[in-house]
Amino acid sequence: MLSKTTGRVLSIMIALLVFAGTVGVGFSLGFRYVLSQNDRFANFSTQVSAIGIDTPGAIMVVIRQGFDTSDIAAALKDAGAIKNELAFVFMSKLNGFDGEYTAGTHFVKGDMNYDEIMYS
Q1: Domain for residue 43, yes or no?
Q2: For residue 64, with 0-12 CB atoms within 10 Å meaning exposed, 13-18 middle and 19 or more buried, which class applies?
Q3: C-alpha radius of gyration, the chain, whole number
Q4: CATH number at residue 111
Q5: Are 10 and 85 in contact (CB under 8 A)?
Q6: Which residues in the chain land under pLDDT 50?
Q7: What whole-number distance in Å separates Cα of residue 65 and Cα of residue 83?
Q8: 73 and 29 inside one domain
Q9: Residue 112: is it exposed, middle or buried by C-beta count within 10 angstroms (0-12/13-18/19+)?
Q10: Residue 83 CB partners (closer than 8 Å, separation 6+)
């Protein structure tokens, strides 16, 4: 049987190992996600660049100068391009698009996912 002190030290060490393992797995998954972004966005460049005013089902979204990501999400929701503003804002921050959007008139399609909309 272990003494009280040895039991506490062992419990703390196990808790630290579990915490370090969780952090390591989280870091690894996040790092792989970030590295895979380039591949995902490379596929979007050909699909998204072809959308214009003459594209069937195109939705026009006007992004004004000074709009932040929340304003853009609201404009996209009002236009019917997205359903959840908070999810768009979160995904935008996660993908590194927060603060990188260009003002102007943009065209998206209703069947585009959030990544495709961000890239356009």
Answers
A1: no
A2: exposed
A3: 22
A4: 3.30.1490.480
A5: no
A6: none
A7: 23
A8: no
A9: buried
A10: 77
Identify the residue whose tokens are 């921050």. Answer: 93
Q: Residues 42-66: pLDDT tens digits?
A: 766 655 667 778 888 889 999 999 9
- Where in the sequence is the domain holding 15, given as residue range(s)? 1-37
Apex CA 38: angle with CA 118 and CA 120, to 5°?
A: 20
C-alpha pair distances (Å), 73 with each of 36, 59, 112: 24, 14, 14
The encoded tokens of residue 60 equal 């026009």
27-31 long-range Cβ contacts below 8 angstroms, 24+ apart: none
Answer for the pair 77, 85: CB distance below 8 angstroms, yes or no: yes
Whether 44 is in a domain gets the answer: no
Joined together, the tokens standing for residue 120 give: 């356009």
Lookup: tokens for 39:
């591949």
Our CA dihedral for 75, 114, 43, 99, rounded to 10 degrees, sits at 60
- In this predicted structure, what is the pLDDT of residue 6? 87
Neighbours of 85 (CB within 10 A): 18
